[in-house]
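Lay summary

Proteins are chains of building blocks that fold into shapes. Our project writes down both the chain and a compact code for its shape. Here are two examples, one after the other.
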Amino acid sequence: MRKRLVTALALTAVAGCGGPGVVPDSTVSPGLTRTATAPERPPADPDTAGAHADPDTARTHADPDTAGAHADFDGDGKEDLVITETSATVNGKYAAGYAVVVYGSTAGADTRRRQVITQDSLGLGKAGAGGRFGGAAISADLDGDGRSDLITQAGSNTVFVVWGGKKKLSGAAELTGATPVAGDFDGDGHADLVTSGSTGSEATVRFGPFTRAGEPARTKPLDLTPDTSSYYTPRPTGVGDVNGDGKDDLVVTWSHVFGDEIPTPRATVVYRGAADGELMKGPRLKDARGKDMYGSVTLTSDVNKDGFADVIVSLTCETIGDVAVPEGGSRLMVAYGGKTGRSTGLKPTTINDRTVGLPGNPVSSGCGFGYAPATGDVNGDGYADVAFSAPTGADRDNNTVTLVLRGGPKGLTGTNAKSTDLPMGPTAIQDLNGDGAAELAGGTWSASGGDDTVRILSGGPSGISTSGPTLIGSADLGLEPTPGYSFDFGH
């Protein structure tokens, strides 16, 4: 059984290499600014369609020649942080978007080594208004050179791959599709890419290794049509080896479209990987009460270190017209993997304000509990940990707390959980200094219209430390400061 720590994502990590089609390190594309409009604080616009518009798409920690290459784009053993701003104005085009890659180093994120990437800089056509380059950003080693590649969506049906290199990201390829997720679905040691179509239930599996022109070794269509007629918007949302057979499985969210035409997640289904590449529909995930498990963000990680990926789902709000509180309150849920796709030893876990041991007085009776989750190993013990934000009052405009829950033999619990009242929005957990204990990076929201800031808290044997955080602002990235929070991350 292949043991590995698998994670699925909503922050961005990348590294870059000056070369054709990529803006050089420490430079900014002319005309690139961020919009001054500050988005509403979460969860006013949770990820809909189950697919993550600013997705927590599949993020994996695994072998460097598979989907597990977790944003180490120069292959130096330190993960690289990708900061995205999909609403950025680029060359006069509103919401054209960009991604900034900050390389990891022995001292952590090194802003002296950074790279701004836009669609315009790739040499594959000019971005239009509303393209939102940087959305659904993930990483995987598609060409098999031992370095992660940056994969990101722009528009409704275009995916760009920017290739990793010895020094930086360099060169790019353009593919058709949306909501990209990556994993080794046939178990051959090469990373594969799944994209959905812009409409309908048809997806495409592209099997690695890829050429630098973006050509896969082979492709297969994948029918994701739900077997329940009322759920007709399926989207890939996560990847992990939930049954431990050495082949990654695909997590798919089924959504229902209500009168306001916004897809609202209703079920989560696992499609099993196979040696021939024919992914087959497997278990439909249920909570401990036997009800469908679903939400706006899907992650995978091995929180109990048994060699099986566990599926983590964040249900922060419902989107049915106006944002609505989910039945039973907002929450985080975990379905544990096993030989059949489900654990026989651990029942599904629900994390909410009634979970024993949670610090910081979080509440889950309204919207927002479980917002912007991220997963990784913050103390280097081999168990995946989970961080997320939660409100500390019934009104979602009240203060929030960021919680870090520790994985362990009993799964995800409140035991040894830590909290920080530092204001953090979207989060990512990545080992930026290569010491085996991952750091927690968080974007900060500013209701007063202040500049965007990324705060990085160090990991270590005792977990996340709130002392001496690293702060990264617009000026540190060579960008023009613009009031209003909007930084996000990719994986």
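And here is the second example, written the same way.
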Amino acid sequence: MSASPAKPAFSGLNSFPVDEIRAMFPAIRKAGDFVFLDNAGGAQVPQAVVDAVANHLIDFNVQRMAKYRHSQGVDRNLTEARESVAMLVNAYRPEEISFGQNATSFIRLVSLGIAKLLGERNEIVITDVDHDANIATWLALEADGAKIVWWRMREDGMLHTEDLKPLLNGRTRLVACTVTAHSIGTIVDVATVGSLARDAGAEVFLDCVHYGPHGLIDVQAWDCDYLVCSGYKNFSPHMGFLWGRYDALVRLPTFKEDFIPDVPPYKIEVGTFTYENVAGMNAAIHYLEDLGRRFLPAGEHGRRDALAAAMGAIRDYELTLSRDMIAALKRHGATIYGISDEARLEQRVPTICFNMPDITPQQFATEMGEAGIGLRDGHMFAPRLMKRLGLSMETGAIRVSLVHYNKPEEIARFETVLTEIMARHR
């Protein structure tokens, strides 16, 4: 796999084919003028993903590992998807990829295995910005002798790696953190996290669920040991996958029936999972590759190069979306949580958490929904972050989350409706 993918040969808003992209998404076509601004709660899928799921159900809706063509088709689809996801994360080998229900179940699976390996290295570092799935799962290990160490966000909405360094020592077993905050959109310097943890002899577990649709994943560059991701934010169906260093997965204690080989991925993929959704995930990766080839110079390029070009294009385009949305919110007096300085937008993704004066998040979300704009309100599954921000679990905040099929015109429409809502509540 390419360690230094080609850089996209383009820049600028006008170079990004957003209208062509939107035409590939049947839900967007069907929704008419509805605006999807809750993509962190579930991104839409391109037609190729719908077709892959449907074709699998029609042609291969049987169990794997049998000696007839339908079952062999399942095996072939899983092999191809494993190779695609390995390429997506820049894995060392395809066997490091395991498929399953969701990211949360994989966090729990790894945490249960690590609980049996604690010994003298019993300290686990967690953060107060993560989704609770990557917090409560590790807190549960206190019953097994784990000592929890908190790496806390600063007031600027960031996790600073210089704050992590003094927390690491010879007793540190694991650092568990997000790659990007699902609530406030901050990107974490996980490459430095990996370097610091490695120097301390500790492992790193990354929640990459929210970063996946916005940037290039690279487990080798990040020097991590485990990483989880979910399909539903990554333009594919509801499913999850775990990447782990092969030797780490071999050591990890897991539950399995006696007839299952005690090697990855088989020791991880216990029981039947949704094969058709894995086929959809494979199609979503091919969709991103096809997008990336639009931005590469003529000639032969590998799959990883195409993917890197796609994610580079997406990052550049989404910066314009972040800039437009944050500017609109500022014009109307919003309290924005996390990074809002235009000079620092590269440190975030276009997931923006905020509150408006004189209206609750719930009422705001209701009126936006009635106007045909979908967004999210509440605690964002991050109770500790809500507490840090001085917000209650009952009301929480408002979140808009954009992806590469959103348009500046949709942000303009959001601002028009925002203006109308605020006028009614003054």
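What can we say about the second shape? The two ends are 57 Å apart (CA to CA).
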